Amino acid sequence: MMRQFFGGRRGYLIGFLASFGLVGLALFIQTQYHLEPCPLCISQRIVFMALGLLFLLAAIHKPKLTGRRIYALLQVLTAIGGAGVATRHWWLQAHRESMIADCGVGFDYMFENFPLKKAFTLIFRGTGDCAAIDWTFLGLTLPQLSLIAFTVFAVYAVFLIKNK
């Protein structure tokens, strides 16, 4: 039963909808609670969208076993990258007391005014904004929830290899 429900295109479409659903949820939380996302929050959203696009491409392509393995590899690597960003974000929040309060510059400003390498360095360094905990669910911060989601997506991508 589960293989039939999660198999083939439907399984990949579920991954696509879940990925973009999480981005939609983040936007809802942002507007509902009047929160400003930090550069690491935005980076995690971008990774969720990239992951969603990989699921959508797989759904359109409907690959055979070798193709499913390749898509799974790309999806797992993307999810690992997202988990890395979420882990860095979580670490900044866990060490917020030792950080100097710094609002930093905006995401747009970084990419418009700095070389690409410098902009990415600034994003992953994080700022005081990245260390702030503005919202929790069941005692978990947004980066912790993102880390869980990226882990689930990686496992789900591997699960889809076996489901035609």
Folded structure, characterized:
- This protein is mainly α and 164 residues long.
- It has a single domain, classed as Up-down Bundle (Bromodomain-like).
- It contains 8 helices and 2 strands, in the order αααααααββα.
- A two-stranded antiparallel sheet has the order 1-2.
- A hairpin with a 2-residue loop joins strand 1 and strand 2.
- Helix 2 packs antiparallel against helix 3, helix 2 runs antiparallel to helix 8 and helix 3 runs antiparallel to helix 4.
- The two termini are 13 Å apart.
- The relative contact order is 0.18.
- The model has no long low-confidence stretch (mean pLDDT 85).
Largest sheet features: 2 strands, antiparallel
Q: Could you name the CATH class?
A: Mainly Alpha
Q: Which blocks of ≥5 consecutive residues have pLDDT under 50?
A: none
Q: Structurally, how many domains make up the residues? A: 1
CATH topology: Bromodomain-like
CA gyration radius, whole angstroms = 17 Å
Query: Please, what is the CATH homologous superfamily?
Result: DsbB-like
Class based on secondary structure composition and strand pairing: mainly alpha
Order of helices and strands: HHHHHHHEEH
Shape: globular
Distance between the termini: 13 Å
Strand arrangement, major sheet: 1-2
Instruction: Give the % helix.
Output: over 70%
Question: What quaternary form is this?
Answer: single chain
Share of residues in strands: under 5%
Q: Architecture, according to CATH?
A: Up-down Bundle
Q: What is the residue-mean pLDDT, rounded to a whole number?
A: 85
Q: Count the helices. How many?
A: 8
